[in-house]
Structure formats: structure tokens, C-alpha cells
Amino acid sequence: MKSTTIKSPRIRPVPAVSRAIAILRLLGKVxxxxxxxxxxxxxxxxxxxCLHILRALVQEKLVAFDPETKHYRLGAGMVxxxxxxxxxxxxxxxxxxxxxxxxxxxxVTAIGVDVGDPDQMVVVALSRSNIPFRLHVDVGSVxxxxxxxxxxxxxxxxxxxxxELKRRFQKLRWDKPLDYDLWCKEVAFAKKxxxxxxxxxxxxxxxxxxxxxLSPNEKITHTIVCASLMDALNKTQMSQLIQHMQQEAxxxxxxxxxx
Length: 259
What we know:
The chain has 259 residues and is an alpha+beta fold. Helix content is 46%, strand content 19%. The chain contains nine helices and nine strands. The strands form two sheets. Strands 6-5-4-9-8-7 form a six-stranded antiparallel β-sheet, with helices on both faces. It has a three-stranded antiparallel β-sheet with strand order 1-3-2. Helix 2 (36-43) crosses helix 3 and helix 6 (148-157) packs across helix 8 (180-193).
């Protein structure tokens, strides 16, 4: 019997869509209104083309236009879309009380992360500590999928081939970089122990620990992350924190995948 190979459908790029998304990402990144010429120059677009796309985005309320300054910013429609995206999954609602408990008990910044996209992780829930340290994160923040403690878990429980992992790893930016072989050992540890600890690597002076939320077939869908100053918790306390996080991860997984 001859075997047949099923080819994935070819996805053809749609320039107008790609450019519209690029504009939205730019306006979200700079967080300050921009004029059409500045947007076009930054994205290397023809100004007239950029203007047509901006007008369509304004019509859909995804972008807002100030007629006095002639500048554009993200519109209220983006908030509606973001809220709909978050409400499409039960995880943010289920995990938020758990993050609040982790903050109250351990004094850490506790974060719920969606890792459903193989390219990036997205913060979908947050309970922020008032201890001042350099961790720029908010609900909606996006990071490379393989970065920091969550990234090791994504590599451990994901299905990406090693060549792809290595290619993506080489693009990551750390305060204190580590080599690929050491990172692979830490990925193997994360797989075995079902947690990952990033100490002083991604952000100097911080300990960032993550545990996976796994589906019944052990596919990673989310992580629970806690960040603290490196000397804030001793070894025993860190071990207890990890156990607490793993317990909460199992609870939320049972709730998400109950059906």
C-alpha cells in the first residue's frame, strides 16, 4: 500500500492585514500617539497606503484619531477585543484568587501566563507585589515563548524540534546570558521536576520560578509564575513556595479540564 503525504494548506500572506497588524503593534508598543508619516516611516510603508489602513482601523474603532494633533493611538475597540480574548478562557478568572493568595502569603509578584502560542507567552493575570524591583509586566504583556522560567517549561513540555529550539534560544536576551547546553540541562530538570527556577539570569537580582498547568495528556497550556528579590526567600521558603504553586497549578488544571 502506498503511503500518502497530507500537505498542510498553503497560507498566502495578505499584505493589507499584515500591515494593519503591524500598525496596531507599533501603536501599542510606543504607547504615545503618532502621525501618519511617523508610522509609515517606522514601518517602511508608503504614506498613502498607511493612511488608507489607518482610516479603516479608525472606522472599526481599533484606532482613534485626534483631529487637532492629526495623531493616531489605539482605540477603545482594542479593549473590547482584549477582554473578549481573556474571557474566552477560564484560566484568568480561575487563577486570579490563587495569585492573590501567593502574593499575600509569600510577598511575591504572582503572574498567570498563557503559552498557547508557540512563538510568545502572554500575561493574562497578575497580582503585583509593592516591593520595588525591575519587573516591567502587566496584563497583556508579551514575551518570547522560551524566555526565563516559563520558557524552560515551554521547551520541556512542548513539541518543538531541537533545531528550532536552538534557533529561538539564540535570539533571547538575558541580563546574564547562559549557554545553550546549560539551558538544555535546565529544561530537562524542569521536565522532571515540573518547575523551573531562573535566578539572576533573565533579570539580574531576581528569582523567577514557574510551574506548568498541564492538560490530561501533559500538554502545557499555561504557567503560574512568581518573582521576588533573590534574597527575599531562603531555600526552605522557596521550596515551600514551589510546592504551593504546584498545588495551585493542579487545582486550576482540574477545573479547566474537568469536562
